[in-house]
Amino acid sequence: MATTIATNRVTAAEKITKIATTKSKSSNYRIITPDIEMKIDSLTAGALPYFNSIFKRLALVNQQNAEILCEFITAEYNERNVKFSTRLVHIKIISSFDRYLNYKDFQHITKHDVIQYLSTLRKTESEDPTHKWIGTYNTRQMVLSKFFKWLYNQNEPDYKKRVTPPCMQGIKTLPRKEKSPYKPSDIWTNEEHAIFLKYCPEKRDKCYHSMTMTSIIIVIIILL
Question: Residue 28 — pLDDT band, cuts 50, 70, 90?
Answer without folding.
Answer: very low
